[in-house]
Write a structure and sequence with these properties.
This protein is of the alpha+beta class. It is built from 13 helices and 19 strands. Among the domains are: 174-310, ATPase, nucleotide binding domain (Nucleotidyltransferase, domain 5); 360-416, no CATH class; 421-502, Gyrase A, domain 2 (2-Layer Sandwich), CATH 3.30.1360. The chain has helices at residues 45-55, 88-98, 137-149, 160-170, 209-216, 231-240, 251-274, 296-304, 326-333, 344-374, 381-416, 421-429, 461-475, and strands at 5-12, 16-25, 28-38, 66-71, 77-83, 110-117, 128-136, 156-159, 179-184, 188-195, 198-206, 220-222, 225-227, 283-287, 307-309, 436-444, 447-454, 477-487, 494-502. Helix 4 packs across helix 9 (326-333).
C-alpha cells in the first residue's frame, strides 16, 4: 500500500493569505481544507507573521510531505530563451544576461531558474530552448523569511503562472489551440497565454479589485448633486450589485477603470500576436477574486469581441470567491513538479535530509547484520578471507592502470587550459546582446578582434556598444579597445570593430 501524502500550498498575496491542504492517496487527490484571511490595509511584518500562523492553525508541519509556496512579484520576468549546449553551472548566468534587456532590475540582483522546453519548428538543432524566470533575489529572501518566522520550511517555491497551468491541466481546461487567461487580483492583474500546458506569454496589468474600489469612493457631480461611496459601500456594491447599467448614476464611477482594463486586455492580445504567438484565441478565461464582479464577463465580451467565461471551481471548495483560490489550488495540484525558485542551498539541504534518512536506514541494516552475525547467520571466516584476497588483487590491478592513465590525464589538463576557437565562440555567444549582430571574429593566439553591426529601437547604438564592451572586459577579454565605429544610415544602424586579449 502506497504512503498517503499531504501537501500544503500557500498564496501569500498583498491583500489576502490563502492556503490549500491536499491529500494524495494512490491516484486519488482530495482537497482537505481551504482557507483565506484578508490582510489589513496597513500590515507590518509582525502582523503578517501572525496572520500566516492563524492561517495554518491546526496543521502540523512535521506531518506534511510537501510545502509549496506560490511566488509572484511585479518585477518578475518570464521568457523563452535559446542557448548553445553548456554546463548547468554556466546556464543561469548565460540566461541572466540574455534576459537583461527585459529586466526591470539589475541582472546581478535577479534569481534565475530555467526549465527545458521542446524546440520550435525551424530551431537550430545544436541549441537548446528553455523557459526562463527571473525574479528579484531580495523578494525571495523576504518571502522565505516570512515563512521561516511562521515555522514553515518550503520544499518548493513555484511561479504563479506555473500554478495556474497546473490547475487548468487538472480540470482539463487547456486547449490544444491555446488558452488565454486573465487573472484579476486585489492589487494587480495578469494576462497569460498557455500553449501545450506551458505559459508562452505573460503581461502584468496595473490595477485590480482594490483600485476599482478606490475609484468608486471618489466624488462625482451629477444633475442630482454629488455622488460618492464609502470604501465599505463600494466593496459591498461590487460584490452584490456588480456593474450597473449605463443609465444608472453610479455607472460613471466604474466606467474609468473598466475601460482601462478592457484597453489593457486588447493591447495584451495585440502584443501576443506581434510577438509571434501562433494560437487562435477565441476565448478568455477569467479567474482571480476580481472575476466575481457581476457583469464583468459580459462587459469584456462586448468590448473584446471574443467569448469570455468563468471556469467552475470544485464543489468541495466552499468560499464566497472561489475563483481567487485557483492559483493556490494549482500550486497544490502541481505536487512539487517542475520549476523551483528556492535557492540552491535550500534545495540541497532538503536533499541532505533525504540522505540522512537513508543513512539511518543503512546504520539500522548494519546493526541488524551484526545481530545476525552473532546468531550464526553470517558467512564463514574462510569465505571472508577469500573475498579479502580477491579485493587485494583487484586493488593492485587498479593501481597499475592508474599509473598508466596519469600521463594522459595530465596532457588533457594542459590541453584544456588552451582556449580554442570553438570554445571562444561558445563563451562569446552568451555575451552578445540581441541588438548586436557579429559579422567577423579573428582569433590569433590570445589576441582577438570583433566586427559587427548594431540596430536598436530602444537604445542609442553608442550606448549598446559601450555596454557590450564593458561586459567583454568583465567576462571575457582584457585591454578592450574600440578600433572603429560609424553610422551606416539615418535609421541609426552602426558598424564597429573592437579588439583585446583573451583572459
Amino acid at each position: 500500500m502506497k504512503k498517503v501524502r499531504k501537501i500544503l500550498a500557500l498564496d501569500l498575496g498583498s491583500t489576502a493569505f490563502k492556503m490549500a491542504l491536499l491529500e494524495v492517496r494512490e491516484s486519488r487527490t482530495t482537497v482537505l481544507q481551504v482557507r483565506s484571511l484578508e490582510l489589513p490595509a496597513s500590515t507590518d511584518p509582525h502582523v503578517r507573521v501572525q496572520i500566516l500562523q492563524s492561517l495554518i492553525t491546526g496543521i502540523e508541519p512535521a506531518g506534511l510531505s510537501q510545502i509549496v509556496s506560490l511566488f509572484d512579484d511585479p518585477f518578475a520576468c518570464m521568457r523563452y530563451v535559446t542557448t548553445p549546449p553548456m554546463p548547468l553551472s554556466e546556464l543561469a548566468n548565460a540566461v541572466r544576461w540574455q534576459l537583461q534587456p527585459f529586466l526591470a532590475i539589475p541582472p546581478e540582483e535577479a534569481t534565475v531558474e530555467v526549465e527545458p522546453s521542446a524546440p520550435l519548428p525551424g530551431d537550430d538543432p545544436q541549441k537548446r530552448r528553455f523557459l526562463a524566470v527571473a525574479v528579484p533575489a531580495a523578494s525571495i529572501r523576504e518571502h522565505l523569511e516570512l515563512l521561516s518566522q511562521a515555522g514553515l520550511r518550503p520544499t518548493q517555491l513555484i511561479p504563479k503562472e506555473m500554478a495556474i497551468a497546473a490547475w487548468l491541466a487538472q480540470k482539463g481546461l487547456l486547449s490544444d489551440n491555446g488558452t488565454a487567461v486573465l487573472e484579476l487580483g486585489g492589487s494587480g492583474s495578469e494576462f497569460m497565454v498557455f500553449e501545450k500546458g506551458r505559459p508562452v506569454f505573460t503581461r502584468k496589468i496595473p490595477g485590480g479589485g482594490s483600485a476599482l474600489t478606490r475609484e468608486m469612493t471618489g466624488g462625482l457631480m451629477t444633475a442630482q448633486g454629488q455622488v460618492s461611496l464609502s470604501a465599505v459601500e463600494a466593496e459591498s456594491f461590487k460584490r452584490n450589485t456588480g456593474i450597473p447599467s449605463q443609465q444608472e448614476k453610479l455607472f460613471p464611477l466604474m466606467r474609468g477603470p473598466l475601460d482601462r482594463l478592457a484597453m489593457d486586455v486588447e493591447r495584451s492580445l495585440a502584443f501576443y500576436g506581434e510577438s509571434g504567438g501562433q494560437a487562435k484565441l477565441g476565448e478568455l478565461l477569467l479567474i482571480g477574486g476580481g472575476a466575481h464582479l457581476k457583469g464583468l464577463g459580459q462587459w469584456l465580451q462586448e468590448r473584446l469581441g471574443i467569448r469570455v467565461t468563468l471556469p467552475a471551481v470544485a464543489e468541495e471548495v466552499s468560499s464566497t470567491a472561489p475563483l481567487g483560490l485557483i492559483p493556490v489550488l494549482g500550486a497544490a495540484f502541481n505536487q512539487g513538479k517542475g520549476m523551483n525558485l528556492l535557492p540552491a542551498e535550500l534545495r540541497s539541504s532538503v536533499g541532505r535530509e533525504v540522505q540522512q534518512v537513508a543513512l539511518k536506514g543503512l546504520v539500522t541494516a548494519l546493526v541488524l547484520g551484526a545481530v545476525l552475525l552473532r546468531a550464526g547467520l553470517a558467512v564463514s571466516h574462510q569465505s571472508l578471507q577469500k573475498q579479502i584476497s580477491a579485493f587485494q588483487l583487484e586493488q593492485q590491478a587498479v593501481a597499475t592502470q592508474l599509473a598508466q592513465i596519469k600521463p594522459s590525464l595530465a596532457a588533457q589538463a594542459r590541453l584544456a587550459e588552451q582556449l580554442d576557437g570553438s570554445e571562444a565562440l561558445r563563451v562569446l555567444s552568451h555575451l552578445v546582446p540581441p541588438e548586436i549582430h557579429l559579422t567577423d571574429l579573428n582569433l590569433e593566439g590570445r589576441s582577438v578582434s570583433l566586427r559587427g553591426r548594431i540596430r536598436s529601437h530602444s537604445r542609442r547604438p553608442d550606448e549598446v556598444l559601450a555596454t557590450f564592451m564593458q561586459v567583454l572586459g568583465q567576462q571575457w577579454m582584457s585591454r578592450v579597445a574600440l578600433r572603429s565605429s560609424r553610422l551606416t544610415d539615418s535609421s541609426g544602424q552602426m558598424e564597429f570593430e573592437v579588439a583585446g586579449e583573451l583572459r
